[in-house]
């Protein structure tokens, strides 16, 4: 699905040198590489504060802690996403409220958010799924009307742009009250282990979060709040500093690959290729995900695997049906889109090293099987 070795070979000398330098200066935790990376990412995203942490799941949890969400507060998020999003809500004893997504973008449906709001609702967590920005105009408007926080789960869309109706643009993750991202190796900006970060334009919130990631300490050995230990290693920051200047080129390579796939699938029966709203830069294709309409998805997965083509099903089970997150509050008729998507979606190999020959082979193998 991804070609991390191919990408590494391209940047090997630079990465190796920067990692070895960390070894030499031995500032393994909170070294200068971490601070430099933080500043460089702030500049890239156009966001006032980046707080590096240990992984994307921690980033979400810490953002919620920093915003002061309390047990019993309701947090609305998408039913069709990776479990981390809902996991941290549940861990903090907040009440997850899962809602349906849009059939074309797979992103959280603003109308479903509106219907789910109660007096206990405190926050909305939109996930920019598969690399495409959610409808932030509508989500920010709903949040403002109802006095809610917005925490963007930007684990899959770093580098994507969002264009507001008023003509302004911002990077995904620079829009809500806070945002989280992951530097898991296969993400669009991946390190060589675990890593993550929280973003916010709110300086007070940033200050609070900088303490939370470090055991609730704002002054050495004074613990003002209950915190966690969540840090980005200096070695990972060194890798990320090498890769950040290449992120736009990496995302462009993904967009080029996506365009070639979509050209091949255009007009083909029973195959729906990813829909992008507006300009192409709103989607950085963390995944290239098709819908297969004739019930052959599972057979297709098997067929592709037999032909040496990796593929994935993200996600095969709606979160509201997962054992850990089931609840009597949920009714099946509230999730028509997610319930259908879990049976239709398939994600194809998508990375920075795909060439035209590979794309054509994958597309032709798929088209022949689906419509044979
Ligand atoms: C990867 C991912 C996370 C979690 O990131 P980790 O670094 O693996 O903890 C959270 N949300 C979404 C949508 C993700 O894709």
Query: Number of DSSP strands?
Result: 14
Secondary-structure element pattern, one letter each: HHEHEHEHEHEEEEEHEEHHEEHHEH
Structural class: alpha/beta
Number of domains: 2
The biggest sheet amounts to: 7 strands, mixed
Q: Please list the strands of the largest sheet in the order they lie side by side.
A: 1-9-8-5-4-2-3
- Percent strand equals 15-25%
- Named at the architecture level, the CATH assignment of the largest domain is 3-Layer(aba) Sandwich
**Overall pLDDT, averaged?**
97
Number of helices: 12
Q: What is the element layout, followed by pairings?
A:
Layout: H1 4-25, H2 32-45, E1 49-53, H3 56-66, E2 74-78, H4 84-91, E3 95-99, H5 110-116, E4 121-125, H6 136-146, E5 149-153, E6 161-163, E7 169-171, E8 178-182, E9 196-200, H7 203-212, E10 217-219, E11 222-223, H8 234-243, H9 247-265, E12 271-272, E13 288-292, H10 297-306, H11 336-344, E14 345-348, H12 356-370
Helix pairs in contact: 1-8, 2-8, 3-4, 3-7, 9-12, 10-12
The structure holds pyridoxal-5'-phosphate (PLP).
Structure commentary:
With 372 residues, the chain is α/β, with parallel strands linked by helices. It folds into two domains: 4-100 and 107-245, 3-Layer(aba) Sandwich (Aspartate Aminotransferase, domain 2); 248-370, Alpha-Beta Complex (Aspartate Aminotransferase, domain 1). Helix content is 39%, strand content 15%. The chain has twelve helices and 14 strands. It has helices at residues 4-25, 32-45, 56-66, 84-91, 110-116, 136-146, 203-212, 234-243, 247-265, 297-306, 336-344, 356-370; strands spanning 49-53, 74-78, 95-99, 121-125, 149-153, 161-163, 169-171, 178-182, 196-200, 217-219, 222-223, 271-272, 288-292, 345-348. The strands form four sheets. Strands 1-9-8-5-4-2-3 form a seven-stranded mixed beta sheet, with helices on both faces. It has a three-stranded antiparallel beta sheet with strand order 12-13-14. The protein has a two-stranded antiparallel sheet with strand order 6-7. Helix 6 links the parallel strand 4 (121-125) and strand 5 (149-153). Helix 3 (56-66) packs across helix 4 and helix 9 packs parallel to helix 12. The longest helix is centred in the N-terminal third of the chain and has 22 residues, at 4-25. It is globular and about 70 Å long. The two termini are 25 Å apart. The model has no long low-confidence stretch (mean pLDDT 97). The protein binds pyridoxal-5'-phosphate (PLP). The site of pyridoxal-5'-phosphate (PLP) has 15 residues, from helix 3 and helix 4.
């Amino acid at each position: 699905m991804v070609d991390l070795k191919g990408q590494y070979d391209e940047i090997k000398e630079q990465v190796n040198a920067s990692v070895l330098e960390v070894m030499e200066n031995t500032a393994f935790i909170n070294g200068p590489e971490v601070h430099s990376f933080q500043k460089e990412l702030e500049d890239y995203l156009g966001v006032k504060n980046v707080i590096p942490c240990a992984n994307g799941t921690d980033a979400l949890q810490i953002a919620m802690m920093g915003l002061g969400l309390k047990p019993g507060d309701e947090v609305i998020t998408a039913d069709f996403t990776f479990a981390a999003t809902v996991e941290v809500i549940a861990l903090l004893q907040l009440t997850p409220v899962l809602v349906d997504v849009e059939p074309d973008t797979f992103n959280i449906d603003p109308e479903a958010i509106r219907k789910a709001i109660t007096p206990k609702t405190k926050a909305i967590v939109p996930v920019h799924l598969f690399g495409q920005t959610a409808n932030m105009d509508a989500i920010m408007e709903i949040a403002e009307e109802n006095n809610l926080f917005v925490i963007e789960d930007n684990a899959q869309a770093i580098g994507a742009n969002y264009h507001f109706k008023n003509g302004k643009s911002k990077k995904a993750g620079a829009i809500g009250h806070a945002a989280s991202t992951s530097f898991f190796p296969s993400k669009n900006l991946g390190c060589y282990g675990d890593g993550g970060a929280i973003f916010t334009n709110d300086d007070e919130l940033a200050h609070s979060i900088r303490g939370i990631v470090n055991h609730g300490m704002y002054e050495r050995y004074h613990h003002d709040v209950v915190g966690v230990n969540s840090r980005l290693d200096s070695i990972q920051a060194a890798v990320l500093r090498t890769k950040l200047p290449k992120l736009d080129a990496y995302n462009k390579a993904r967009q080029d690959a996506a365009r070639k796939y979509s050209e091949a699938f255009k007009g083909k029966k029973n195959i729906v290729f990813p829909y992008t709203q507006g300009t192409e830069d709103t989607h950085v294709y963390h995944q290239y995900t098709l819908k297969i309409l004739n019930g052959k998805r599972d057979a297709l997965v098997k067929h592709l695997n037999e032909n040496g083509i990796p593929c994935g099903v993200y996600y095969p089970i709606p979160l509201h049906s997962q054992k850990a997150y089931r609840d009597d509050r949920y009714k099946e008729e509230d999730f028509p889109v997610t319930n259908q998507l879990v049976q239709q979606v398939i994600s194809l190999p998508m990375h920075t090293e795909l060439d035209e020959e590979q794309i054509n082979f994958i597309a032709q193998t798929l088209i022949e099987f689906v419509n044979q």
